[in-house]
Here is the input.
Amino acid sequence: MREIHTDDIISSVKKLSIEANYYLSEDVIRRIEYLKEKEESGTAVEVLNILLENYKMAAKEKMPICQDTGIAVVFLEIGQDVHIIGGDLTEAINEGVRQGYKNGYLRKSMVDDPIVDRKNTTDNTPAIIYTDIVPGDKMKITLAPKGGGSENMSEVKMMKAADGIEGVISFVVDRIKRSGGNPCPPIVVGVGLGGNFEQSALLAKKSLLRNLDEPNPDPKWEKVENEILEKINKLGIGPQGLGGRTTALAVHILTKPCHIASMPVAVNVQCHAARHKSVIL
Here is the structure.
């Protein structure tokens, strides 16, 4: 049994909160640069250049990529041979977020009541935490700040098996069409298929963590991802909704088995600031 102290978790989450908001992953930058060379709209090229310059400035000046520094979504993979000492795990995660958002001068966006009394919690907590127990004696922490504009364009639909793959493709493309420029394209489109109502949404969000340089490990689903991506980029929405071919950078699909009577499909939209950082303790 290996012990991990909550102090190490706090310091790790603090660092991830800051770095995820300051430094965009190289795979996202590479994909934008690649698609920029294929873009036919002069306006779209100009917008993409501005985004690329923004990423450079954020990293150089150590400032947030976007003013919406998001909900702190935390994915934990905890080895079954890990024993956490020093305090409560959930509180350690929230303390790391609290310190990171304060020390990184990041906007605090969480309100403590969803409707009646929407007072800001002042420290961007509570984080949203998902935990998987895995083999081994290590802990992997992934922090993915998720902005409100793109999150608001997400959707779950309980489809019928008879709708088939064409029904799924139509739903995903229509969701992006209805979104227009609201999620700050170019976007990454996460699709969760299967499980049940809530698991499909979690699958869609988890799919956004996949590196943009990595194809789907299942060739069958890689083909579907490419088909959806092509259809989305033919919509003409373009960067920031100003027209062009570069509406989406990628489509990522995660699947799970489901009940014979249902076919849950979720779309989780991620803006161009596809932020996530990980550490292994």
The chain has two domains: 2-21+65-146, 149-274. The longest helix spans residues 42-61. DSSP finds eight helices and ten strands in the chain.
